[in-house]
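To whoever is on call:

I kicked off a structure prediction for a single chain this morning and the downstream step that reads the tokens threw a length-mismatch warning. I double-checked the sequence; it's 451 residues and nothing unusual in it as far as I can see. Pasting both halves so you can look.
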Amino acid sequence: MSRMPIRIRLALAFALALAVVVALVGGLVYVRLGDSLQEQLDDSLRARAQTLAVLVDDDVGSAELAVEEGIAQVLGPDGVVVSYPAGSPALLSDAERARALGRSYFLRHESVPGLEEGPARLYAKALGDDRQRVLVVGASLDDRQEALDSLRSQLLVVGPVALLLTSLLGYALAGAALRPVEAMRARAAEVSSERPGTRLPLPGARDEISRLGETLNDMLARLEAGLERERRFVADASHELRTPLAALRTELELALRRPRSPQELEAALDSAAEEVERLSRLADDLLVLARADEGRLPLRPTPVDARDLLEGVAGRFEGRASFAGRSLAVSAPNDQLLSGDRVRLEQALDNLVDNALRHGDGTVELRADSADGRVTLRVLDGGRGFPPAFLPHAFERFRRTDEARTGGGTGLGLAIVDAIARAHGGSVAAANRPGGGAEIAVTLPAADGSS
């Protein structure tokens, strides 16, 4: 059953449900008609008995009962037939006659003399004040049974025909309802990475199938966007890897081309080591982003003191800033705790401070403030800030300003900051300061109990 097409399954289910309904309705009509015919017959017998009881006086003797249809008898105290047809067999047994003396009732006999062959319906009641005689009237059940047989025959003929016609209609309706699904399936078979922009056709009705198509089209759009990001990521990564690899190969080839002095070999090895270090950083950055995309960036969240975190980062860059003639400043309240992985947060702040020292000017400020259960870590610098066109794309991978393209960066630093912030359930934003310079704010959840 489960291997059948949905259209056939729907038609069969529709046919089965309809068959149950037809059987129940047909059975109910059959029973109700039988009850109605029997009630009519009982009313007729009761009315006839009432009429005949008036005509029969206390001394009927052998007088005949005028009966238009059916049969009627008056039984004496000894059970002998004392009225029409005289001398005929009694319609009631002694037990049935005794019961009728107590109260009137209906009964059924399979055959009655004087009526057509077949079952008959009888009505017996006591007569006279002494209640010693019993009046019996009866009628054949053939007409009732004939009507029921006719109805049953019609149900057995009309029911299957109606079932067949409605099943065919159900099959056609199921096909019409599933036609948009088939159109969507056919179009889905054409979807491929070589044909971007392909979307599933939507039916005109705003129904469940239309909403399913919209959902699938949204999914296709997300998949295409993800695929485009992956393609761009691979292309950019290949470009970034090509440069240090080419430089490393050149250094090694030059070192091996002719005999070199120890000083020249040492310089070549230093240059190669720098390129290897660059490759190692790029590989680490790519690994962090890949894990973040999969939701598997390992975190060990603990309460972290914001001021202690910023001072630790500033201490690592103090020598570099002093060598460049610049300074670092930390501004954060005491006992301000945030929830996060200290190692990952230091990695994000290191990238921000490194970016500020590379491309900014003046003092690099590290600040922390809190509001509404969130702690915001800010890194600010002087200088020209970000180009306005760069700000909407600041945290995209391999996205760099034109000035930074020759500075040896990979364009992954801000993307890593964004990935670490999102992994902590936070966010990151970049902006230009009104007085000049750039500001990057990382907002993270505060630790429980933090002020």
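Update from on-call: the warning came from a stale cache, not from the record. Cleared it. Sanity check on the structure: The chain has a mean pLDDT of 81.
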